[in-house]
Structures are given as C-alpha cells and as structure tokens.
Design brief:
This protein has seven helices and 14 strands. It is α+β, with helices and mostly antiparallel strands. The longest helix is centred in the middle third of the chain and has 29 residues.
Length: 252
C-alpha cells in the first residue's frame, strides 16, 4: 500500500481580492476521494476512527531508511485507487476523517513557517452562486471562513501531537511491517502490504519506565485504539465482496 495520492488537484492561495464573492457548497459528493485507499488521521481522531476503519501507519514518501517517518492513516480500500467507503458519491461510514472534512480548504506553510489558506479551485463546489461565502465584499474573511480557519488551526495543532506520537513509536522500535492475505470472490489471492502496525510483543517487552511513560502521556491509549481497529480489516473485505457482488474474506 502506497501513501495516499493528493486529494487537492489544483490548490491555490486564497486571495481576498481575486476570490472576493466566491462561495463553497457543502461537501456532499465524496467522489473526490473515490480513489484514495488510505487517508491521514490525527491521533485525536483515533477513538472514533477505530470504530469504523483499520488505523495503520504508512511511511512518509520523503523519509529515508536512516530516519524513517511514518504517518497514521485509516485504510479505506484493499486495492490501488479504490476507496470502499465511497459508494455513488456517498460516504459509507458514520465518522468522516478531518482531512476530508476540511476540504476544499487547507493550510500551506511558507519557508518561514507562516501558514496561508489554500483552496482546491478544481473542485466543482467552489463557485460564484451557491454555498457559504468565503470573502466579504470588504475583503474581510466571512464568518464561514473564520469558522473553518479555527478548524484548520486545531487540525494543525493536532498534527504536531501526531508527529510526536509517531516519532516515539519509531524511537522505541515498536512498528513492524503489516501484511493481510485474503481471497477474492473468484478465488484469486489478494495481499495488502506496505503499511506498519504496532508489534504487541515488542510493546510488552519494553522496560517498565518506557511503558509508564506511554501510559502517562496518553500514547498507550492511542496504541490500544490502533491495535483494536485492525479487526476492521474484515469490514474492508466485506465491502469489497459487496462491490464485486459476492463475498470475499481475509484468510484466517
């Protein structure tokens, strides 16, 4: 499994002059994410996301073997460019990751670490007539944009906590390569690999001081949520079976 492809097709900086009067329609057609078989989640989302999806870790593309960097994701599909939670434009789960809920807006960082709002101008819901106003005629941010910027601020703050959690997992050497072997309805094998999961034996073998630190920092609860969530792989096979018109299942 590869790191998910970009959701944003044509992101541009939101400009108070150029985009004055522009609006955003509510995201109800999730076809924009139909080819994403994984999606980033912050650690604050683990508790809810773990009820619906497998939560795993993918290597960040720019990381190296000498300094591996991983990022938590929810697994959304078993095959390349297939999101099993998008059906005819609808999102087939109760919880929608924050990464998608912020769309088509996001923050972009400049070289001096300042952030600016970007918008995917390729999205059809970015228009002149319908939806929430982004920029007032005066050039000021409209109430909806201010509300979304608060959400983006929180998303970025949690991103820092998420990176620290992942760095700790790597430092403690708690991750192992994950593999799921299954079978398609026609009997052909299906293997999903390329992701990482916490190795329970390595976790149990940690020194008491490290275990206590994980508990006190809240990281242990996140680890348990991740480990429990992997049972949702079964749900992915069920969804794939439904899409193919038959039943498919992971090998026991």
């Amino acid at each position: 499994m590869n790191f998910p492809s970009a959701l944003y097709k044509d992101p541009v900086l939101l400009d108070r002059n150029e985009h004055r009067g522009k609006r955003i329609s509510k995201l109800t057609d999730f076809s924009v994410a139909a080819e994403m078989n994984a999606m980033f989640v912050n650690v604050v989302e683990f508790a809810e996301a773990a009820k619906e999806y497998p939560v795993a870790f993918l290597p960040v593309p720019e990381s190296s073997q000498d300094k591996p960097v991983v990022s938590p994701v929810v697994l959304l599909g078993l095959r390349d460019r297939e999101n099993l939670y998008v059906n005819e434009g609808k999102w087939d789960a109760r919880y929608i990751p924050g990464y998608l809920r912020r769309y088509p807006l996001a923050y972009a960082k400049s070289g001096d670490e300042r952030v600016s709002v970007v918008i995917d101008q390729a999205w059809s819901g970015f228009n002149d007539a319908e939806g929430e106003l982004l920029v007032e005629p005066s050039g000021e941010a409209a109430p909806y944009l201010k509300q979304m910027m608060e959400f983006l601020d929180a998303f970025e703050r949690e991103g820092g906590r998420t990176r620290a959690f992942c760095e700790r997992l790597v430092q403690l050497d708690l991750l192992r390569g994950g593999t799921v072997d299954g079978q398609l309805p026609d009997g052909s094998p299906l293997r999903v690999e390329g992701f990482f999961a916490v190795d329970e034996q390595k976790l149990l073998g940690l020194p008491d001081a490290d275990l206590l630190e994980l508990v006190k920092s809240g990281a242990m609860g996140l680890i348990h949520a991740h480990m429990l969530s992997m049972s949702n792989v079964q749900r992915l096979f069920e969804k794939l079976g439904q899409r193919l018109g038959k039943v498919s299942a992971p090998l026991q």
